[in-house]
Amino acid sequence: MAEDKWYVVHTYSGYENKVKADLEKTIENRKLQDVIREVLVPMQDVVEVKNGVRKAVQKKMFPSYVLINMDMNDDTWFIVRNTRGVTGFVGPGSKPVPLSEEEMKHVGIRDIGYEIDFAVGDSVIVVNGVWEGTIGTIKAINQSKQMLTLSVDMFGRETPVELEFGAVRKM
Q1: CA distance 144 to 141
Q2: Nearest CA among 83, 42, 71, 73 for reference residue 59
Q3: Average pLDDT of the chain?
Q4: In angstroms, rounded to a whole number, what is the distance separating the alpha carbons of residues 113 and 27?
Q5: What is the pLDDT of residues 8-64, one digit of tens each?
Q6: For residue 16, is it within any domain?
Q7: Is 112 inside any structural domain?
Q8: Which helix (H) or strand (E) holds 11?
Q9: Residue-wise pLDDT tens digits, 86-97
Q10: Does residue 115 lie within any of the structural domains?
């Protein structure tokens, strides 16, 4: 497996969410989840004041840009580059340049190099948060978001719970 990195793609103004939706549909249709892991339009909460009324809204952090976590190869480059609304990758000439870890931290994206020793089906115990002390079984692992989906017993029913890697430990 090649190393996945975050790349920046330039889009037409206002097409960020359309590009994200089109890429996610292509990834699903072509079963590319292993090579294109995440498509992100970074948003930030902003308080606007209009006519004396304060209103919390979400604004795009980088208008006309989309972030993509992927393994860069000729196929993934071609798929992303030929998505409607994409004008190109950020980088000199036609060579995409991945974001550095420092740049990712400024954007608020976690380090994707987090190593875990969990596997689907493992029993774990939650060590912090509202579920502290709860025992669950891992049902899914999302490496890029650093999240686990656990199945825990709540009122006699299996209930899915999503937690960060650091919130659990193996039993």
Answers
A1: 9
A2: 42
A3: 85
A4: 22
A5: 999 999 999 999 999 999 999 999 988 998 999 988 877 777 777 888 888 888 899
A6: yes
A7: no
A8: strand 5-11
A9: 999 998 877 889
A10: no
* 171 pLDDT tier (thresholds 50, 70, 90): confident
Q: Output the domain CATH number for residue 139.
A: 2.30.30.30
- How many CA atoms are closer than 13 Å to the CA of 44, on its beta-carbon side? 11
Specify whether 86 is located in the same domain as 133: no
Of 52-56, 64-68, 83-87, 122-126, the poorest mean pLDDT is in 52-56
CB 9 within 8 A of CB 90: yes
Examine the domain organization and report whether 17 and 58 are in the same domain: yes
- Count the helices and strands in the chain (H runs, E runs): 3, 11
Distance CA 73, CA 25 (A): 19
Q: What pTM was estimated for this model as a whole?
A: 0.61
Instruction: Provide the strand spans (E) within 83-128.
Output: 86-89, 123-126
Strand partners of residue 67: 8, 40
Q: Which of 67, 66, 64, 4 is nearest to 32 (CA)?
A: 4
* DSSP calls for 28-66: HHHT-TTTEEEEE--EEEEEEEETTEEEEEEEESSTTEE
